[in-house]
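Lecture 7 notes: from sequence to structure.

We start with a single chain of 850 residues. Read the sequence below before looking at the structure.
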Amino acid sequence: MVVLQSYCEVNSPISITWVDEGISPCFYFTLVPTILLTIAIFLGTIHCVFYQKYGTTMEPKFIPRSRLYGFQLAVTVLLGLQSLGGTVYRAATAAELPGYAVLNGCFYVLAWGWAFALLRVERRRALLMDRTRGHSGALLAFWAVAFAAENLAFVSWYSPHWWWGLDTTEHQVQFALWLIRYSGAGLLFFIGLRAPGLPRRPYMLLINEDERDVEASAQSLLGRTEENLSTWQGFRKKVRLLVPYMWPRGNVFLQMLVLLCLGLLGVERAINVFVPIYYKNIVNALTDGSSWRSVATIVCIYVLLKLLQGGGAGSSGFVSNIRTFLWIRVQQFTNRVVEVQLFAHLHSLSLRWHLGRKTGDVLRSIDRGTSSINSLLSYIVFSIFPTIADIVISIIYFITYFNAWFGLIVFCCMALYLTLTIIITEWRTKYRREMNQMDNLTKTRAVDSLLNFETVKYYNAENYEVSRFEDAILKYQVSEWKTQASLAMLNQTQNVIIGSGLLAGSLLCAYFVTEGKFQVGDFVLFGTYIIQLYTPLNWFGTYYRMIQTSFIDMESMFKLFEEDQEVNDEVNAGNLLFKLGKVEFDGVYFSYTNGKEILRDVSFTVLPGQTVALVGPSGSGKSTIIRLVFRFYDVQGGCIRIDGQDIAKVKQTSLRAHVGVVPQDTVLFNDTIRENIRYGRISASDQEVEEAAMAADIHDKIMTFPDGYDTQVGERGLKLSGGEKQRVAIARTILKAPQIILLDEATSALDTQTERNIQASLTKVCATRTTIVVAHRLSTIIGADQILVISEGRIAERGRHEELLLKGGLYADMWLKQQQAQDADSGSDTEAKDCTSEKLQPPSTTSGNL
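Now the structure, written as tokens:
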């Protein structure tokens, strides 16, 4: 039978706080549950009233499903039940039950019951204002106090009234229950910083987006909404992308270097422990009057350890420098792999994406992203993990060789430091992200302005461009100031915490020295060790900020990696089996954007060796047909076949190997003319390059240049005229020697005589090849086997030149207007006579044109 004795044990009144080198259990188990219940009731009531007054019930579809939230609820219930179970166990096994044990069990159940209720309230209702990351302040404060209270038990490490000795069954049970409370409260607090069961964005924004009432207010370079989320959002996905770069697969040498660097990292941790110990031994040896031999030996070992450690925490020591040197090869490997994979991925994206990209943004994202991966790996592996290891080792060391007070001081200081660092750094994330956006805007304006240098000059807009650039810089500097100011505030907070911890520990250590419990060397050991520990801890904030900055810088690069290829090869796609070169369009429908069709039920056939011309007004879909044959896009309806094979079911590389294109807008690489022509077939010899130039009627022009074929064409070929660029593009296609040729206004930038020469060359080249021509000058496609007149995405007319003229339809009207425009421009009878001799006029309009 259980007897309820007095409130506290015999000879241990509640007024006595310290008993036998530890906190009185009666005092502790009265104070802690009382404080927890007070916080739960007071802050919880405010929390509920606040959510009831300023919140709204969330729709179920906006509440995220989260296993971590279920875990939070389960842990909360467990923490309430463990206290009740501990009281029941103690009542069943003990002859007498103190009153504080009953109060402890009841108050704990009530306090954690309130916490459970608050979790449910926050899950079901949302504040209309913008929420911050994490749970409400009431829940976070409750969990923080509960976790801190369990850490306070360490103070009683040497007290026989506590369970640390594990000498009885009751102590073992109490220790197990304490482990549940300690781990549960800690997990709830750290998980609560993320709040997995709550929406990641303001609830009203989710509603507005769902109703399509709010448009995206901030767009990234990829056209996506830029949200003020934590940089740890999608952490698992980011880590999965980083894992291949952490371990160099397939390279045994680099893998051995990684293992060696990790081994040296462990050596540095051991050195950091022994340096202050040997410094203490030196002081004790000097004060104790030890022999010169023993003092000299200790000093030599200490100096050797300092040499290996370097200044502070080994940042520039011998071991650290060796590790840094060995890591260079691994870092280069990582940088190369990231850049090559991203470059290949960008080339695999569709033409639609490249037409909509912002080159300045993409380049800045690539530069920052690739460099941030190296920084991220270096900071995590060689800075964050070692710092955490140093903190854990120091706490264990101080508790073991000093007493629990020193371990508690170090732990509280470290926990407070890391917690505030993370919270403040997360808060200032939005300023860093905004600064990146302004930086991208500045670079984009600069790049666009310089690329359009001629346009700026044409419109005398130099001052306008300079003012726009200056305005972008001013906006960037405003964001930069916010970033730097918040950084200064963070540094000051860290300094206050570090100074407070150092002061408390030094005063306590000095007190024990004056009491004769410690030696002078112990004070030196504490001061040396704690300063050595604070050095990397002080850098920990910087490391965390740099990791966060790296994640921010990598966000744009990750989005580039996430861009899907619009045009993909099928899983079992085979190579195109080219036979004769028959091209078929069968009921093709296509649109660039939903709701606006460019091509509607387009069907035609180009027989092997034939030339089909596409004519029509601008925007009718002529160039789109060329792009679809080259499979820059996939059709939405119908299919395109070459020799009976659907081009959507063959590999793109095999298709494009048989197709050559001369685009309307020719862009050249900033290289020599020879290399730009050779781009058609990289393995071509110089003689073959020159023969292609002759076929394109540009060889003689090239030879008039001082450097000949070694002439640099400049950015996008701006040093050449439009006609010269177009002839280089034609030469490049001739050198490729494709079986199917697509000409998109291939001679639009040429004068009449050069156009005739090129037409003669193209006629020879295309004689045995399937050719599709987009033409604006109708005079260039008179000899086409079939002419298709495209109007509003449909084939309005088809036939040969003479047949279409006799129909008197759209083609005849276009022909008449071009002839009239040509006569008006020439202003002489000579051109009219030339036109007559070439028989380019319709019979019905000959007299009028003459």
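Residues 210-228, 828-850 have pLDDT under 50 and may be disordered. Keep this in mind for problem set 3.
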